[in-house]
Amino acid sequence: MKFLKKLYVQVLIGVVLGILAGYLFPSYNSVGKMIGEGYVNLIKMLIAPLIFFTATVGIAGSGNMSKAGRIGGKAIIYFEIASTIAMILGVVVVNLLQPGVGVSTQNLAVKSIDTYVQSSKDVKWSDFIMHIIPSNVVDSFAKGEILQVLVFSVLFGIGLGKLGDSGKSIVITFDKINKVLFEILNMITMLSPLGAFGGMMFTMGKFGFSTLVVLGKLMLTFYLAAGFFIFVILGLVLKYYKLNIFKLLGFIKEEILIVVGSFSSESVLSNLMYKLEEAGCAPSVVGLVIPTGYSFNLDGTSIYLSMAVLFIAQVFNVHLDVWQQATIIGILMITSKGAGGISGSGFVVLASSLAAIKVIPVEGLALLIGVDRFMSQGRAITNMIGNTIATVVIAKNENLLDMDIYNAVVEGKKVATQQLNVYPFPQQEPVEAL
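The chain above was modelled as a monomer; its predicted structure follows.
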């Protein structure tokens, strides 16, 4: 039974067992929460140092500061285009399928949204900009502020690169430390089946299947939109660069299943950085694109936000013309950035957006609270896949994707090299080219 040794099979078993445990023993959902959060915390422990060392080594080691700036610029442009397309897709799909029509507004738990409504009043674009700039880098590392750590990493990498030959010893040392961190990540990743079990046990024990019945149409609509975005839109982007989306998704299948179990894309951020480097993406691209994408390239969240606003409008029979819906997309593009770093940011963004639009009842948020946990899986998976593809595309565009390694590791093709350094998880066999 060799297949049981594969990590993705173990994670899948953990997910199934977690669902059963949560359904059969709902009173023990707190145990599942403890297990799931414990695993996620182990991963988060590594995120800040991995971002720092990966980005610093990538930038300082490249010896080309203008290239680093070009990579960052292309990433931001790509993120904004992808997020906008995702929001437009959400609007189109919800207009076609109209999941909010016929949904009852009786027994809305209005008090449950008070916290989000209050938080939305404090959301400001200027606060988000200032939040990116670290006032205390030690505090940024301690709190795991991804963008702040990235800003410091970029500056540190540029400064280290300016030292020339005298800075090479530091780059070599940082590279060795980074490899140690990745070895720690390997060990933690072996616990991912347990983390998936805990996350699913908590969710099923607390919310149960009954929540899905009432808003099942909204969930189905969202997952259809997310699937279309991944396989059609992002698939065509990869096809343009002569890459296969199904091969790439197969390469990150373990991470997809981990996200399913943990309900968080952050739980695989470090894994993705590791895997993409081993797939041939230059460290300078991985170190810049992945951390930035986790704040600016949330494709799944973009789809969900635009759909949720129009869903609430449909529930309350609020008719919105084309120009009003276009305005909603514009407002969401701003508010979705302004809530960065705020707990429960999805609902904060929705509350602040509805407050800005003024014609859709904020009370409608209460309809989404129960089912949001289940849709968060789809959001997290889409966000993670979107950032993976963004990294590969930008690396390919910058000629910083080693196609020999990529073809051997991801595409499974034979290449004319002696030996390839591939992703060394225990469940995967080394790839040797003939």
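The two ends are 28 Å apart (CA to CA).
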